[in-house]
């Protein structure tokens, strides 16, 4: 038996913890990020907004060493989430 309350964080500035369920993996996630945070929108929808970016070096290589450079351009490709910025595919070089 314990007399009195144990340590309970009270007062201002105590962070709110949000709980989410990943709809794909059914995984429970506790996060300090609010539901309208881009990363949490991605988590709740279970997917990222894929956006393919080509690195500057890859594009330069494609122009200078055309047509062989196109291979280098593809190596410097990055797939990123448009919404939260999460790198889905960092390319072969990275
Ligand atoms: Zn995302």
General description of the model:
The protein has helices spanning 38-45, 56-64, 69-75; strands spanning 18-21, 28-31, 50-54, 77-81, 87-89. It has a 3-stranded antiparallel β-sheet with strand order 3-4-5. A two-stranded antiparallel sheet has the order 1-2. The chain is of the alpha+beta class and 94 residues long. The model has no long low-confidence stretch (mean pLDDT 85). The protein is elongated, with a radius of gyration of 22 Å. The longest helix has 9 residues, at 56-64. The protein is built from 3 helices and 5 strands. Strand 1 and strand 2 (28-31) form a beta hairpin. The chain has 2 domains: 15-47, no CATH class; 49-94, no CATH class. The site of zinc ion (ZN) has 6 residues, from loops. Keywords: Membrane, Transmembrane, Transmembrane helix. The chain crosses the membrane at residues 54-75.
What is the fold's blueprint, element by element?
Layout: E1 18-21, E2 28-31, H1 38-45, E3 50-54, H2 56-64, H3 69-75, E4 77-81, E5 87-89
Antiparallel strand pairs: 1-2, 3-4, 4-5
Helix pairs in contact: 2-3
The chain binds zinc ion.
Zinc ion binds next to loops.
